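Next comes this protein:
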Amino acid sequence: MNPLTETCLQMTRRRLFGTGIHAAGTAALASLLGAANTKPARADERVRHGGLPDLPHHPPTAKRFIYLFMNGGPAQMDMYDYKPMMNDLFDKDLPDTIRKGQRITTMTSGQARFPIAPSMFKFQQHGQCGRWVSELLPETTHVVDDMSFIYSVHTNAINHDPAVTYIQTGRELPGWPSMGSWLAYGLGAETQDLPNYVVMTPSWTGRKSAQALYSRLWGSGFLPPDLQGVALRAKGDPVLYINNPPGLSSDGRRKMLDGLAQLNQMQLEKLGDPETAARMSQYEMAFRMQTSVPELTDLSQEPKHVLDLYGPDVTTPGTFAASCLLARRLSERGVQCIQLFHRGWDQHANLPNDLRNQCRDIDRATRGLIEDLKQRDMLKDTVILWGGEFGRTVYCQGDLSRENYGRDHHPLCFTMWMAGGGIQGGRSIGVTDDFSYNVIQDPVGIADINNTILHCLGIDNKRMSVKFQGLDARVTGVEEYRLLNELLT
């Protein structure tokens, strides 16, 4: 199925005869597709609404996807990629044999030197897997055996917007569908009371200024518009206009929507535009959300021992901890794709102080989310991905001292981790050089990670595409990709 097919399927008999389209062939096609979409469900099959009839392509290991996105680019060598040899090279120039003339941003290209800034934070090994983790993440160390680390991720873009757009959509240019929209398109939805794709942008305590986020990062591109992500706000009502205005009752709202639906139905019968059908569907979803969203965001019924898992910030609306708990609650209610965009990781200066705050925001909550899902027997079918759009340089941006330094953007290598949903804990892939500057073993591209996420959810990436601008458009674009078998159960 693709948008053109969607248009054909929305055609009514009145429109077919009115516009002179060959009705017999289209009716036959619609009949075949309708039969495929209405096949009886197996006893072990979850009830889904929409999606492609031939999916999943293979038995999935995950039912849902949670993406903890650290917007701005976390410093891998200060958190996970332990490089002890750098301690002896403090304030020495980065060797040309390591930099190899590779491009750098305009923020450091004018520097006379590129002095090495070793991490000032202590590292220790943790878990049965012996994973090296910085002192900045003491809570995360308790769940490293549930995680698989990818130390050799690399990307194309060196600036934030194209890098985030690329990691979200598989393209550096705007206008393409995000991963969550692709999942909704292929797999359909398990719930009709909440959006199938939910985005949260929690507060942060690191660098005050942060990179801008745009709704197109969770947009549906050329896929149907009702597949785009819905953002829950960090302050105020979680969704704008979720409550009726003064003087309008729920019954009054229902009558208004019924009248509007009749007008939209007339427009749909006249033009057969899928945009009209999507608008009708979204109006109904919004009406149901007036009940489901307040119930979702009411944490008063959560027992104390669960709240304690996420830490003291969990009761403050809009924090990363509160958002992680909401991610678990959304997962329980059938939401398929959940993304948290935690901002403030763009630390060009004052990194030690700002990074401490950022890690404090996420540390306890990340552990809490994994342990909460595990206790509910949900981690086994929830695949989690953590990471940013790129990493940071080992050399310092600006003034360097033992107590303070900054780091520039670095797309050539950075660290991400995955957990749950078919990912074997305690494993790792990829090695970087002693400077955490170049990948020297098992490079992993963004397309490889996206392909692996799709695989866990039962999707063969080669078999799910849409014709667009002369291409078989898919999540991974047209580039080569592989499956990260080393991490799979």
